[in-house]
Amino acid sequence: MPSRAAASRALSELFRVLSNPHRIRIVEHLRSGEVDVNGLQEATGLTHSNVSQHLAVLRAHRLVHERRDGRHVFYQLSQPQLADWILSGIEFIGGDIRKTPELLAVTEEARNLWKGPPANA
């Protein structure tokens, strides 16, 4: 029983970290490989400071790691399958028949965008 409680707490913490829509978008963008803050800023429309703050949370929970090249810092998913797992979540919410037509359309659009080739391909 203690192992179940520990696993439940760890999974709950992961859900808490991923509960921010900006972090989900950052993770999705990182599925294509390493990207610097400027690339994430451009992809998400967030400020440099905001991207850095979200990356700090993701880094603190070991979901991303960084590589330095001179003054540039590049970020990459520690476990690339995390982006696939999130995409599975899109499939899950898209299957909810209680959704409005507008939400279904947005979900379908996100699914198509995220299933497409990685952003850096």
Description:
The protein has a single domain, classed as Winged helix-like DNA-binding domain superfamily/Winged helix DNA-binding domain (Arc Repressor Mutant, subunit A). 14% of the residues are buried. It has six helices and three strands. Strand 2 (64-69) and strand 3 (72-77) form a beta hairpin. It has helices spanning 2-18, 21-30, 37-44, 48-60, 81-94, 101-115; strands spanning 35-36, 64-69, 72-77. By secondary structure, the chain is mainly alpha-helical. It has a three-stranded antiparallel β-sheet with strand order 1-3-2. Helix 2 (21-30) crosses helix 5 (81-94) and helix 5 (81-94) packs antiparallel against helix 6.
Q: What are the main properties of this structure?
A:
single chain, 121 residues, mainly alpha, 3-stranded antiparallel beta sheet, 3 strands, 64% helix
Helices and strands in order, then pairings?
Elements: H1 2-18, H2 21-30, E1 35-36, H3 37-44, H4 48-60, E2 64-69, E3 72-77, H5 81-94, H6 101-115
Helix pairs in contact: 2-5, 5-6
Condensed summary:
The protein has helices at 2-18, 21-30, 37-44, 48-60, 81-94, 101-115; strands at 35-36, 64-69, 72-77.
| SSE order | HHEHHEEHH
- Arithmetic mean pLDDT: 86
- In the predicted model, the low-confidence regions spanning at least 5 consecutive residues are none
The number of distinct helices, counting runs of at least 4 residues, comes to 6
CATH architecture title: Orthogonal Bundle
Instruction: Give me the Rg, rounded.
Output: 16 Å
User: What's the CATH class, please?
Assistant: Mainly Alpha
Strand arrangement in the largest pleated sheet:
1-3-2
Helix content: 55-70%
Q: How many separate structural domains? A: 1
